[in-house]
Design goal:
single chain; six-stranded mixed β-sheet; 39% helix
C-alpha cells in the first residue's frame, strides 16, 4: 500500500502541462467562432477577435510563434468539460469569473473587465447618461430579453421604460428607428458596434454591472497556470503591451495609455 501511494504521488508530482505542450509543439486552445468582437470568422473565414489574440499571445510565449496553435471550436457549455477532459490546454472565450466556476477550473488574471453600457444615436435627443437620468420615465431603453433585464436597466435608470427584445439586432433596430432612446448592452459590444459604424452612435459614458473575463485552465498544475498568468500580465503591463494595445484598439476602438514606468501600478 505504501509503495502504491508513493507511486501515485510521484505520478502527480510529474504532471506538467507546460512541458507537455512544449513537447507537443503547439497549443490546443478552446474558444468560440460566432461572437464578435471576441471570437468570429472574418471575410477570409479566418478565426479572429480579442479572445483569439489572447490565445495567440500564449502560443507566442510558448514557441515565439503565434501561429503554433490548434483551435477547438466549442460552445459555451463545453468550456469547463473540455478542460476537465484535457481536450484543450486553455480556454479563452469571454468567460465570466464566478465563485462557482472557480471550484471547477483555475482562472487566470482577468484580461478584460466587462460591464453594461448605454448606446445612443450620435445625433439623438440625449447626449449622455446625465441627460437620460434627468429625463426619468420619458426615457425608453431597449435591452436583450432575460429575467433580469428590467432590474438591470433600473439599477442605472430607475424610472426608465424598459423594452425587451429577443435578439441583439432588434435592440439596435429599436434605437435606429427611435422606438428607444438608448440600447443597454455589453460595453464590449457597444464599443465594437461604434467602431464598425463611426460617427453614427455614441457611448452615454456610464457603465455598471462589472464582471471579469479570464482564461481558464484545468485545476492542479500551478506551473501551467503561472505561465499563462505571466503571458497575460506582461501583455497588459510589460513586454507585449504594444500587441495587447493594438488588439484592444482594433476590437474596441480605444487607445490604451502605456503602463507607467517605475513602481508597478498593479501593487498600488
Amino acid at each position: 500500500m505504501a509503495a502504491a501511494i508513493l507511486c501515485t504521488s510521484g505520478s502527480i508530482a510529474l504532471a506538467d502541462k507546460l512541458q507537455d505542450v512544449l513537447d507537443r509543439g503547439y497549443l490546443i486552445a478552446g474558444s468560440g467562432s460566432t461572437n464578435a468582437p471576441w471570437h468570429f470568422k472574418d471575410e477570409n473565414n479566418e478565426l479572429v477577435g480579442f479572445d483569439i489574440d489572447m490565445l495567440r499571445l500564449i502560443a507566442k510565449g510558448l514557441f515565439d510563434d503565434p501561429t503554433k496553435i490548434e483551435f477547438v471550436n466549442q460552445s459555451g457549455d463545453a468550456r469547463i468539460p473540455n478542460l476537465a477532459t484535457d481536450k484543450v490546454d486553455v480556454a479563452c472565450q469571454f468567460m465570466t469569473v464566478t465563485a462557482g466556476r472557480a471550484q471547477q477550473v483555475e482562472f487566470t488574471v482577468p484580461y478584460y473587465r466587462e460591464g453594461v453600457g448605454l448606446m445612443l444615436m450620435a445625433d439623438g435627443k440625449y447626449a449622455n447618461y446625465d441627460e437620460l437620468a434627468a429625463a426619468g420615465s420619458d426615457v425608453t431603453i431597449s435591452v436583450l430579453q432575460n429575467v433580469y433585464a428590467e432590474e438591470m436597466v433600473h439599477a442605472a435608470l430607475p424610472q426608465a421604460t424598459v423594452d425587451q427584445y429577443d435578439s441583439v439586432d432588434l435592440i439596435y433596430q429599436a434605437l435606429n428607428s427611435g422606438r428607444s432612446d438608448a440600447a443597454a448592452t455589453d460595453q464590449s459590444s457597444l464599443s465594437w458596434f461604434m467602431a464598425q459604424n463611426p460617427g453614427r452612435y455614441s457611448d452615454a459614458g456610464y457603465g455598471w454591472n462589472p464582471q471579469s473575463y479570464s482564461c481558464a485552465v484545468k485545476p492542479g498544475d500551478q506551473r501551467w497556470l503561472n505561465f499563462v498568468n505571466s503571458v497575460l500580465h506582461e501583455a497588459m503591463t510589460g513586454v507585449e503591451f504594444n500587441t495587447y494595445a493594438a488588439s484592444f484598439k482594433q476590437w474596441f476602438g480605444a487607445e490604451l495609455s502605456p503602463p507607467q514606468i517605475g513602481f508597478p501600478v498593479e501593487f498600488k
